[in-house]
Specification:
One of its GO terms (cellular component) is membrane. It is found in: Membrane. GO terms for molecular function: ABC-type transporter activity; ATP binding; ATP hydrolysis activity. By secondary structure, the chain is of the alpha/beta class. The chain folds into two domains: 259 residues, P-loop containing nucleotide triphosphate hydrolases (Rossmann fold), CATH 3.40.50; 158 residues, no CATH class. The chain is 50% helix and 12% strand. The chain has 18 helices and ten strands. Strands 6-7-8-3-9-10 form a six-stranded mixed sheet, sandwiched between helices. It has a four-stranded antiparallel sheet with strand order 2-1-4-5, covered by helices on one side. The longest helix is centred in the C-terminal third of the chain and has 31 residues. The N terminus and C terminus are likely disordered.
């Protein structure tokens, strides 16, 4: 059951070895945290352990799989290894090259691919990778274009490079191709570590094998440390894994090679049938495996695992220099330009939304104008109250119409969280880019609304008054849009959105 690849792997200049020691993570509900603030109780008392005394490792040049039944803690362990769960919330150690992990630096130097693809349906494959490269790679656009061309070829996406991603009703690329694009987005800056949550979820067996084979070749040929979670892999996929971390109820039942797992099962008195793979059998015979902790492994198994170790690579780890502080790849102005260009591309390919918005402004302008026809020319008390009603209706329309970009923001939400958590750009750059892109469109909408309504209502009959009214409407549009945008993103946790 060993890997079909021979041990002549590429040696990376700065390899990354990930390790956890006696790691435990207890999930606290918001109610428990509220009780601790109000009454001083321990928020972790009565909470459920997701991970318990987990000791495991992932090494360069190897593809390591985290497996186990549903609810075993696979995704949680992957998120801890990726630095996406605050280390202040866990007990034990998370080490990178034998040093404690610095989460914000590690997130920028690694790649993390979530189970759900965070891609823009309106962008093409090449555009998706290009914008990611421009945000993650310092230097001129030509460098990013060269890297994207190499990556498209490496991922086998040449034939769909200029096809839109698509989703739902808009037909686009296949599920397996989407997964490869998602992986490519986190490969543009050539990270030494890649962590992927369920890369084969929702894929047929052929697509799943293609994705995992691609990851295995990357680990072998480029010296990367690749860790993924998986539920029930088939024979051919299982053979591609160099290491396996088997979890059950938060405990590590096995940490090592598939050969070692087979040996442990044999020592426990099991005979694995030929038509059943080792992992499937281990999941059914979980109770016969002794929980592995740093103190529980017997000497025979330690000897087997020791023969599996690569001592030369361990010597190289000690020579890896201390990590330097990683800054943003681009200046704030460059980030605004790149994000603005991407946002323009998205909104101009969402024609239905903006055609509807233009029609809405015209219809509302004519409708309110006919309802309050010529009330501005009258000066009595009733006309004054009527004008007040007109301005109240106008204000209601302006505030309710500031959600024209909300579908786009909802579409971008997952991408925004992912990109900011890895330090691709500043939150302030994102907000400014969105505002600047919308300013011209909102100005057009303001004029489409004010042109009929101002003259039909009969307000001050001069061009200065019309322009001033249009300016006020435009400012209300901008203010309302930005308020909704800031409120929308203020819901995110600080660890996910570093400023």
């Amino acid at each position: 059951m060993g890997s079909p690849f021979k041990p002549n792997a590429c040696t990376r200049k700065n390899p990354y070895r990930l390790e956890t020691k006696n790691l435990s993570y207890k999930l606290c509900s918001q109610f428990d945290e509220y009780k601790s603030l109000c009454f001083g109780s321990n928020p972790r008392r009565g909470s459920k352990y997701i991970l318990k005394d987990v000791t495991c490792e992932a090494r360069p040049n190897e593809l390591t799989a985290i497996a186990g039944p549903s609810g075993a803690g696979k995704t949680t362990l992957l998120e801890v290894l990726a630095g996406r769960i605050s280390l202040s919330k866990v007990s034990g150690q998370v080490l990178v090259n034998y040093r404690p992990m610095v989460a914000d630096r590690f997130r920028r130097a690694s790649g993390f691919v979530t189970q759900e693809d965070a891609l823009f349906p309106s962008l093409t494959v090449r555009e998706t990778l290009m914008y990611s490269a421009m945000l993650r790679l310092p230097g001129v656009r030509k460098v990013a274009a060269t890297r994207v061309s190499e990556l498209i070829k490496e991922l086998g996406l040449d034939h769909i490079a200029d096809s839109r991603i698509g989703c739902g009703s808009s037909r686009g690329i296949s599920g397996g191709e989407r997964r490869r694009v998602s992986i490519g987005v986190d490969l543009v800056h050539d990270p030494a570590v890649i962590l992927i949550d369920e890369p084969t979820s929702g894929l047929d067996s052929a697509s799943a094998l293609k994705v995992v084979s691609l990851l295995r070749l990357m680990a072998f040929n480029q010296g990367k440390t690749i860790v993924l979670t998986i539920h029930q892999p088939g024979f051919r996929i299982l053979e591609l894994f160099d290491g396996l971390i088997l979890l059950s109820d938060g405990f590590v039942m096995h940490n090592g090679s598939l050969n070692l797992l087979e040996t442990r099962l044999n020592l426990a008195g099991h005979q694995i049938p030929q038509h059943v793979n080792v992992l499937e059998f281990a999941l059914d015979a979980m109770e016969s495996l002794v929980i592995q902790t740093s103190d529980s492994e017997n000497s025979q198994l330690l000897l087997i695992e020791k023969e599996h170790q690569d001592h030369m690579m361990r010597m190289q780890y000690s020579k890896v220099v201390k990590e330097k502080a990683l800054l943003y790849s681009n200046s704030p102005m460059e980030e605004i330009l790149i994000l603005g260009q991407r946002f323009c591309c998205n909104i101009f390919r969402t024609e239905q939304l903006f055609v509807a918005r233009v029609i809405q402004a015209l219809v509302a302008g004519f409708l309110l104008g006919t309802i309050f026809l010529n009330v501005g020319s009258k000066q009595d008390q009733v006309a004054l109250h009527t004008r007040s009603g007109f301005f109240a209706f106008s204000l209601t329309f302006l505030l309710s119409s500031t959600t024209e970009g909300l579908p786009i923001f909802l579409e971008e939400r997952r991408t925004f969280m992912t990109e900011t958590s890895r330090g691709a750009y500043r939150v302030s750059s994102y907000v400014l880019a969105n505002t600047l892109v919308f300013i011209p469109f909102l100005l057009m909408v303001a004029f489409l609304y004010t042109t009929p309504v101002y003259w039909l209502v009969g307000l001050r009959k001069d061009i200065d008054g019309f322009l001033y009214f249009s300016l006020v409407v435009w400012i209300f549009h901008i203010k309302g849009k930005n308020t909704k945008l800031l409120d929308f993103y203020a819901l995110f946790e600080p660890i996910q959105v570093p400023i």
